[in-house]
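Hi everyone, sorry if this is the wrong subforum. Our group has a chain we'd like a structural model of before ordering constructs, and none of us has done structure prediction before. Sequence below.
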Amino acid sequence: MCSSFEKTCSSSSIEANRLAYPPPANLKQTAFEHCTARVKLVAQQVKLGILSGKLSKLSCPITADFPKDPVLTNCGHLFDRIAIQQWKDQGKPCALCRTPLTQITPIHAFREFVEERLPKDPVLTCSNFKGQNQQRAAKCLELAKSCIDEKDYAEALEFYGKALQHTNASADYAPIPELYDQLREPEKATLSRLYLSLYQLQEDKIQEAIKTLEFCKRDVLNVSYLIAGLKLQSCPSLENIEWAMKEASDQNNPDDSIFIYKQILGSAPDRLDAYQQLIPLTKDPKEKRELLLKAAEIAHVARQFDLEMIFRKEAEIPLISNVISKKEWAASQTINLPPYPQALKDFLAGDCAIWPGKKRSETHIVVPLFPQVAINDAPIPSTLDSLDQLDKSSGGPGYRFLWDQIPKNIPAEKEFHYAVMTNDVIPGSRNKSYDAQLQLLPPGYEVPGVFDAARAVLWENRRSGKRCFNDNPWTYTRCKEVIQGYHLVVGGFAPSGLIVHYYRYDYEDMGVAGWRKFKAIGH
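Answer:
Right subforum, don't worry. Here is the predicted structure as tokens:
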């Protein structure tokens, strides 16, 4: 709810405070730039939706998706390699014709072959524009209009296609969406309107672009947040700001709400109600603290001291970085990690039921889970592949073997977490079936994922020099992922590195570790 102070903001106070309290740098991105990028993204999604019908006949019958690694079976059917290999390993016949599977043949460059033959755009665009020639354009446009009068809409499109080689004006493109409407092709009509709005924005015709996008709302496209941003860009009046506040609260996608609130603060930096709504949606801790401190400063000027105290108290919560650099990874003993949450402290101080007579702090690895890593000063997602790069680039051994069938881009958590993993396999879990191993896990534990286990073992090595799950004796933990019928495993850690592999059968060196996660303070 708006306070009485916030409700009495006038246009003059907005302008004065815009100079006195400029918004943080990350709020200065213009609506024009953002909207242009987002319209392109929405257009791309609509385009892919139209083309998906053409790709459906080329999808894998098992995954119902375009095959990432396409293969042909001996009976001549197309599948994704991993999916059909699992069927073959399980003794199943072809999923389409039930023929016994005897051979699987890779189809090299299949994806490129198909994509090169798909239309670049299913609707007319200005991409074939060769240069302005108004005389030639006018002749083609006149012929197109004659075809429209005769209700020959398909031929009219052909003449518009020729005209767009000589003109890229939004006004000349404007009739095209209506032609797709007449041809009863609503998806193409929507896509062409998105392109029209882009052309209008390029010509700085913001009001016309708003009208075009408003027409797209008829097609159940969520473009209201784009419209709100453009309205604030063209006219940051108090009326438009109040309307934008309502639009922001009505959005289903938090990113869309964030965009509108940032545009509001770009126009009216003293809107405390916008800060109050934006701060809980902001995930980046540094950005969140910046917003809290700015809001506290504005609350102080507005003499809303209770609100100021709340903002400042929340800003004092320790910053939790979502990125770890190779320098910090290498200096793991002195890294400035967030404080342990109380639940984790209590857990580590407790008696270990797995290894009686010891505390859990003696029998568990504590591992910080960072969503991103920075190897060359640029944050990239933390994945199985970037973990190996991080460890090796900071002087560690990384992997000495990584099975090439394991996805290298298994994503990390979206926010920083702590986790614990037992520093050895559960006693009695070796040489047992996976189901029997699960029964040995104490309540509250789960089997680690392959990425989780690799992070824990490599982190402990950097922190203490220990090689948990090593090759003396040979020790692996089974992981929860299964590929081609094989459980993935992590272990066999030697001075040359860690093994990330698979095993199908039960062996003496094959046990299972226990894994638990804990949220960090402030999350």
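For your construct planning: DSSP finds 23 helices and 14 strands in the chain. The chain has three domains: 37-54+123-221, 59-117, 323-519.
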